[in-house]
Amino acid sequence: MNKFLGYTCSICGTEYLPEQVVYTCPKDGGNLDVRVDEELIRRKYRPEDITSRADTSIWRYLPLLPVSTPSGSATPLHMVGGTPVYGLPNREEAGATSFVWLKDESRNPTGSLKDRASAVVVARALDLAGPGGKPPVIVTASTGNAGAALAGMAAAAGQEAVILAPKSAPPAKIAQLLIFGAKVLLVDGTYDDAFDLSVKAAEEFGWYCRNTGYNPFTAEGKKTAAFEIWEWYLATLATGKRVNVSSGSTGFRSAGLTVFVSVGDGNIISGLHKGFKDLLALGWLEQMPRLIGVQAVGSAAIAEAFRAGTDKIMPVKAKTLADSISVDLPRDGIRALRAVRESSGMFVTVSDNEILKALAALGRLGIFAEPAGAAAYAGLLTAQAHGWLDPESTVLVLNTGSGLKDVSAAMQAVALGAGPAPVIEPTLEALKKYL
């Protein structure tokens, strides 16, 4: 079944056949939305045909994806997705609403949501090669997570990958790139410098560029998180209740869902939006969830455009400890703005100090998030403090990655609280002093 119809430019609306373009619109440089044959899917499948599948990875949604099933069924490539949703207990000091949930993307094979995008891009590269053909080398620019995801998924599929990362990327993320066997080059510059170089390299060497906010298939991978949220929310509605985790009480809530997600270049929130739009078009979703984008104060180009009521996004000199969302010029900013506006959402900005406090607060709930993931939770706390949310609303926070990717940030968060662990003598007397 050929579901992949082509592309539509997100700016001018021009439609292209699959073989006419690869990355962006040749007319205006706009990001491309992948078009799938919704009528064909609607005729062939019902929601239960998807939700009843035994496969819990992103490939359970293969009928809704514009790629073929990749090889390597027993590899990490087929273990992406199916991430858990946790109920967060009410904590007065955390300012949690009655019904707050967190979807933990750190449980993906390489520890971040970016595995979703890389898995679909790898599948697309295999499709481009054709049966028996040699897939192209895949290149990407990355501050760490996207590169680690590509390196891991490419290794699982036996494909070559080249990663260009700014030399300032956290060492733990660089270690992942190297251990997966990718060709890793550290760029003496910013993420945006690495991005531009990767595009030139793809053109020069005939590589396939995975870059976020450039390759249209990255959003197709990230939209699978929206599909999982849809399934989770449907299951919750089917029970007729939401659970107040701290008290164990239940109460019916028919209001829509609000999703908090951190935003750097804008591709995750635009991917979520694309997924929900696909479901709406199929008639499988009744209401678009409200999308709340969270940016660091030091990297808030999209949030500033939203507040100014414009589509013109001005580049900034990004400076934030949340490296995954530290971007000078967001490459998917227009679609990120559209995602928030079309879902009646908003943008929230948070300081690095607020991110660190949120990281520590999540840790006390048993969740070890990287700074970008903690930023989404910080955004929720900020929204609640300003009264921007109904306290009875159902909220889902997206943790985009594991705290193990940036241990130095975790130690900064610890320093805001009790401080580092003390060193004691191996005696009961010494131990009792700290009990």
In short:
This protein is α/β, with parallel strands linked by helices and 435 residues long. It has 14 helices and 15 strands. Strand 12, helix 8 and strand 13 form a beta-alpha-beta unit.
Please tell me about this protein's structure:
By secondary structure, this protein is of the alpha/beta class. Among the domains are: 1-44; 76-111 and 216-415, Rossmann fold. It has 14 helices and 15 strands. It has helices spanning 38-44, 47-51, 114-129, 145-157, 171-179, 191-205, 216-238, 267-282, 301-308, 333-342, 352-363, 371-385, 407-415, 428-432, and strands at residues 4-9, 15-16, 32-36, 85-87, 99-104, 138-141, 161-166, 183-187, 208-209, 242-243, 250-251, 257-262, 290-296, 346-350, 394-399. Strands 4-5-15-12-13-14 form a six-stranded mixed beta sheet, with helices on both faces. A four-stranded parallel beta sheet has the order 8-7-6-9, sandwiched between helices. The protein is globular. The N and C termini lie far apart (65 Å).
Q: Which descriptor suits the 3D outline?
A: globular
Could you name the CATH class of the domain at 76-111 and 216-415? Alpha Beta
Order of helices and strands: EEEHHEEHEHEHEHEHEEEHEHHEHHEHH
- Order of adjacent strands in the largest pleated sheet: 4-5-15-12-13-14
Tell me the span between the first and last alpha carbons. 65 Å
- Average pLDDT, rounded to a whole number, is 90
- By helix and strand content, what is the structural category? alpha/beta
- CATH fold-level assignment of the domain at 76-111 and 216-415: Rossmann fold
